[in-house]
Task: structure prediction
Amino acid sequence: MNGRRKALVALHVLGSTLSLGITVVMVALLVFALSSGDESLVRVDDLLLSTVAIPALFVALITGVVAALTSTWGLFRHTWVVKKLGLLLATLGFAQFLLVPWISSGEHWLALAGLVLQLVKLTLITLLSVYKPKGRFGKSGTREPVAVGRG
Result:
């Protein structure tokens, strides 16, 4: 792996792990906010979501797509890559279009459930990266029969 590729993969891993870590922090802050009634913690959650979590998800998305397109894995060749892409797009869309409004409008319990769901999706993305389950697009699992005998 050359230096540019390593830097790209490192940036992808950093964006992904930052997304996971900041989501854990946001869950903790929201739990503390709900138990204490401290609205300032909710404002911190809102700030973290828009200034750290969503940009980190964009970094993970962009670097992941570039890394896939410039590797032998490809973007649409292997099922695990497509699953990661789908989960990451769902996580990013969910954060932008549901979590931001829920936190801003005071739907704290809904936001907490959404953040837990985000943790599940980000964990699945991580597991797909590590285990890389087999499966390819465009290749069937069956073999064509081979003619044996007199020709």
